[in-house]
Each structure stands twice: as structure tokens, then as C-alpha cells.
Amino acid sequence: MEFEPIWGAPIAMYLFLAGLGAGAFVAATAAGRMAPQAKRTVRAGRVIALGAVAVGLVLLMVDAKGGFLHPWRFALLLGNVQSVMTWGVVFLAALVVIAAVVVVRDLLKKSVPFGLEATGCGFAIAVAMYTGVLLGVVKTFPLWNSAVLPFLFLVSAMSTGVCAVFLFARLVCPNEVEKLAFLEHVHGWLPWVETVLVVALLFFVGLSSEAGAASVAALLTGQWALVFWLGFVVVGLALPLVLHLVQGRVGAGVRDACGAEVHGACPRVESGRACGAVSDAATIVGGFLLRYLVVMAALPVVLL
């Protein structure tokens, strides 16, 4: 028997944008505190965070048949404090407001209080995890109702957010990338953690029930196998891991091959930047495909 998904691409895009925006806010905050001289990158990260989360919030409102389409339904949603979606909207709205204040202060050349950024990071982490909790509310879908999913989405959100910030830096202000070496080093571990969590999710869901096993089979060998293996695993996970290792080796030999004087024009430097940009773009694609596949491949438990 085939089942139509209760959610589709719009909700997958919302989950992706909300996570990416949350990750970008955390990345911009870390960069601003540890490398304040990378001003353009920090500012871009804050703008990316605000834009992504704001668009994600609009998509949620539209998909929930609230907001612009039926504003009274959105008001009812905010009044239901027992609803997970209500808390999600509160987290998203708070993050949008904080991100907007941070962006405005940045554009006005005013310092951003540490307390404001720390609060924003707290809401960003809540938003990133909430995107997994939201799906888990539908308990009849084993692929969604897993304790692993919120942590997987959190790691993926941080990874895609950092990559969005780095992609801007590599394309627009590559001279600032070197100042963010600490952030790139931390990010290098996130795909490995994400891989472990994906394996854990599929393992536990596959053993949970027949519907869970069917959902995993749809990903590994069934309807969604090509997108899963080629799109998510190869492009979204394996390619960034390989390129990150290649980029590390290129960077290690730059000074010996080119010398400090021609560092900016060195072909090996340009090669390393290209590897980094492709890796960042592939990670972002993988982040969207992860959420799209989780939403679309989930099958419900059939009650006889």
C-alpha cells in the first residue's frame, strides 16, 4: 500500500532554512567574538541568519494555513501553549527579532552586547533542535518519532550554517578566511558526527517497527535510494569530507610551495579555496536533501 506524505517540499525547505539560519547565527557570533577583524564575514553571517530564519518562518505560517493566508489561525496557534508548533514559532520569532536587532546595530556601527548574542545563540540552538522535535510529534511515523532526529538536525544546522558563512567569505572576502581557521577546524568534524547520527537513526528506526523498516528500505534500496545515495551520501557527506582532507593537505604545503610573499596569488591557494567553496556548497545541498528525504520517505504505522 502506498501513502501520500502529510508534509511535502515546503515543510522540508522550512526545516532547512530554519536550521541553516540558526547555524549561521551561531557561526557569526563565534566569528565575531574570536575574529572581530573578519567584519564582512561576520556581518554576512548575521544577515544570512536573519534572512533564512525569516523566510523559514513565513513558509511555516503558509504551510500551517496561518499568517498571511488565515491570520486568525496563526493567532490560535500562538495561544496553544501545549503545542510543540507554538513553542517552535516562539523560538523562531524570538530569533528573528534578536537577529534583526543585531543586524541593525551592526549596520549602525554599534557594538552588539554579548548578552544579546548569547541569548540569540540559545534560541538558535532551540530552533535547530525544534525542527527535529516538530516531526517527532507525529508519533505514527517511526522515521520522525526518533530521539536521534533532533540531535541530527542540530548538527546538520550548525554544519550548513557555518558553510553558508564560509561560502560567502571564500567568494567575496577570501582574505578573511584565514582568520576563521578555528571555526573551519571545528566544522571539519561535523560531517563525521552527522554520519554517525544518520547511521544511528536508520539503525534504530529500522528495528523499531515494520513501518520503520519500510521507511529505511525506501531510503536505502527503494523509491528514494538514488537521491539518498547519490545526492545525500555522495554529494552531501562524502564529497565535503574528501574535499576537506584535500584542502587541508593543500593548505599545509602552501607556504613551502608559494612563499608568504605570493600567498594571495598562489595557484595552490586558489585550488584550496575552490575545494573549500565546493565543499561548502555540497554540504548545504546535503543539508536540504537530509530534511527532504526524512520528510518524504517516512511511512506511517498501519493500525489494523
Summarize the structure.
The protein is an all-alpha fold and 304 residues long. It has helices at 9-34, 39-63, 71-79, 84-107, 114-136, 148-172, 181-187, 190-208, 210-220, 225-252, 254-258, 267-297. The chain has one domain (9-297): Formate dehydrogenase/DMSO reductase fold, CATH 1.20.1630.
Summarize the structure in words:
The protein has 304 residues and is mostly helical. The chain has a single domain, classed as Formate dehydrogenase/DMSO reductase fold (Up-down Bundle), CATH 1.20.1630. It has 12 helices and no strands. Mean pLDDT is 85; it is low at 259-264. Pfam families: NrfD. This is Polysulfide reductase. One of its GO terms (cellular component) is plasma membrane. It is found in: Cell membrane. It is a multi-pass membrane protein.
Kindly state the percentage of residues in helix: over 70%
- Mean pLDDT rating: 85
Q: Which percent range describes the beta-strand content?
A: under 5%
> Unreliable segments (pLDDT under 50, ≥5 consecutive)?
259-264
Number of domains: 1
Annotation, overall tally of beta strands: 0
> Total helix count?
12
CATH class: Mainly Alpha
What does the radius of gyration come to? 20 Å
Largest sheet: none
* CATH architecture annotation name: Up-down Bundle
Counting helices, strands and paired strands, the structural category is: mainly alpha
Fill in the CATH topology: Formate dehydrogenase/DMSO reductase fold
Membrane topology: Multi-pass membrane protein
Keywords: Cell membrane, Membrane, Transmembrane, Transmembrane helix
Family: Belongs to the NrfD family.
InterPro entries: Electron_transfer_protein, NrfD-like
